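Title: Prediction job returns without error message
Component: structure pipeline
Severity: low
Priority: P3
Assignee: unassigned

Description:
Job completed but the reporter wants confirmation the result is attached to the right record. Sequence as submitted:
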Amino acid sequence: MVICREKSECQATSAMSNPYAHIIEALDPQKPEHKFFNLTKLGDPRYERLPFSIRVLLESAVRNCDEFLVKKEDVERILNWKQTQTQTVEVPFKPARVILQDFTGVPAVVDFAAMRDAVKQLGGDPEKINPVCPADLVIDHSIQVDFNRKSDSLQKNQELEFERNKERFEFLKWGSKAFQNMRIIPPGSGIVHQVNLEYLARVVFQQDGYYYPDSLVGTDSHTTMIDGLGVLGWGVGGIEAEAVMLGQPISMVLPEVIGYKLQGTPNKYITSTDIVLTVTKHLRQVGVVGKFVEFFGPGVAQLSIADRATIANMCPEYGATAAFFPVDHVSVQYLQQTGREAEKLGYISQYLTAVGMFRDYSNEAQDPDFTKVVELDLSTVVPCCSGPKRPQDRVVVSEMKQDFEACLAAKQGFKGFQVPLECHDVSIPFQYNGVDYSLSHGSVVIAAITSCTNTSNPSVMLGAGLLAKKAIQCGLSVKPYIKTSLSPGSGVVTYYLRESGVMQYLAELGFEVVGYGCMTCIGNSGPLPEPVVEAITQGDLVAAGVLSGNRNFEGRVHPNTRANYLASPPLVIAYAIAGTVRIDFEKEPIAVNAEGKEIFLRDIWPTREEIQAVERQFVIPAMFKEVYEKVEKVNERWNSLSVPSDKLYSWDPKSTYIKSPPFFEGLTKKLQQPKSIVDAYVLLNLGDSVTTDHISPAGNIARNSPAARYLTSRGLTPREFNSYGSRRGNDAVMARGTFANIRLFNKFLNKQAPHTIYLPTGETLDVFDAAEKYQQEGHPLLVLAGKEYGSGSSRDWAAKGPFLLGIKAVLAESYERIHRSNLVGMGVIPLEYLSGETADSLGLTGRERYTVVIPPQLTPRMVVDIKLDTGKTFQARMRFDTDVELTYFHHGGILNYMIHKMTE
């Protein structure tokens, strides 16, 4: 395998070299210069039975078939999907483009800059390190909710964002000039997935004389949101995305495809959030990890593109690789609504119809073959939330009070806080702005309308606005100590909320616009009022956050909110007004107004019909056109940034944001033979569902952490620390932040703490300090873990950090898909217990020393011996799933592989 060296190699393959040139034809006889590969002319009856998502993979293979990177047998394997889907067959896929956000984009650009240096050092041409397919980077992860509830909150938060991140932004702007095919969408524009949906998505590419389906991979797990528009895409590790940008196809196991049949009509009080939380729990139970889910059935036609995108967005939460809604007439209407050009709408429909990829959900004759079909009747969906610690733990709203109280008493776990019974009704008084209040378990202290999951959907956003209007008209308010915020996913949202007249009511309840970015959903929730924090700490309270996000893992939203619930934007406001999650909205009033009248949630809840009427009137194409015509040049602060034009980056040794990483130090042209891991110590002994937030936190840097000590040594004050996410361009900070989450549960300590036992002496140390000590003494390291290791956000530092700590392998019961591929990309071995075995069943304590025997000849998914210093031996599977992954391992990781190929 080699890497594309020139842009032309990533363009549509010429008719001379492609064995499928005979099916190339003009889409419109009047425009013979615009061609396409007409898959229906393959004359193969299997094509019409393929799931629509697999047809996209097939088209890419046919168009890029050069008998080198993509071969005819790859095309045959995809065509033969009905048989090959269960055979762990590996196929290449070349996405049309790549999308990044700044938290994952900065380390990608850092890697590119460092790779240029490495290629030059090895005698190659550094400018060959260059994206050869389109890459869009949207800056959306940097802004925090430092100010809220005031009309100038947006301006102040954006000023702080630039003050904290100026150096990162300058670096990204340099990257946009130094590298080809890289477009930056400046801060203040919106959330990456919403901008992708409303603006960046092509649906069908018209490039280099060919039409072909839009497809992508992204460095964020919620890239799947675009599947709702009929664009096949999913999240990959930053390392894997870099390979795609350099022209490598993704090597993937051809997936099973679960057909998800939607029937019926949602009742008038149901939101898309209720539907997606229901789907998430259902598909978690079905088991769809590593599979595609493709939606079909008459119920799909009942859903808007925004509804479909909401369902597709939470695909990582139900574990699938992609959640695909093929393009239909509703998709085309959405493109029209969002201001796409009429000419594009014409060829999109024409091309997809010609190639057999345009869907009519009411036509059962179009239904393809699926691995398995599961169904949901939309009329059975009821209002719900998810929590308190995981997005798949759905709670019906009418049972919320009962469920929370059960969680208080339950044993510490995903649905338990282990609060002694005598403490359940504790109440802690405090003063805020001179007024007396009290907090108890379940008190809401954060209420955030946030995240692309919901802010991309006009129905739930306008629903929240209409509920706010009715609440104000009924004399209701939100207590001033509750941190309320509204962070829309694009400027379009603010536009239609203002034009429809509901923005003033949202603001009156405290939901002022605080920024355009991910904000609370990724932990950028900012500080809580000090009296609130003191009350929570004094009573050891399980305080609650309610957010319209997609992730609520422990420690993610805010250190002081131990319970966090995902909810629709209207429900976020409802719980903010109530001030607690310990309420049954059906039986108890949401509040009592100044006149002493009890107001129930049903009194202020808008119907679907009310919302749709406002949406039809105020969500119009002109808004989208106006906002996006100026999106790349409207931010004056961004425009004023001055950057050098050098092709090689001039690293500043004083920088605490951008640093040349040590990944390529000592790299030579000669490959090293993989060696066994001998007498490794266990750094951490972890349980189930360890997330990438546990491994590589994105939130605030604790003042007593190794990262804080490093930054202090560089002359910074705590106010200047910023977040881990913002410092992903600096390996010294990120290595120290690895496993630094205060909610990390380490079995060595039997409690939550970012610490571990240094086994040679038995002393308790910060994880980084222990790892550093092991490395100084030349000891390799392992991590023991349970099920679903690495679940959560796509985060390449969750693999890079362990690599820098000296961790050679992870031994787990199972892995989240993206995280496993990231470990592979960094040369860390993902080991998996054999079926039915666990650390407990094997009697492992983690205090043993482990030798992993790696033979000279490796094969995908091979079983290897693990020998302990106790004399015990057992076996585990090496989760290198494909030959390509083994190739990366032999090179020491995917980036090393790239450099070797560039210098051949």
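Comment from assignee: result matches the submitted record. The radius of gyration is 27 Å.
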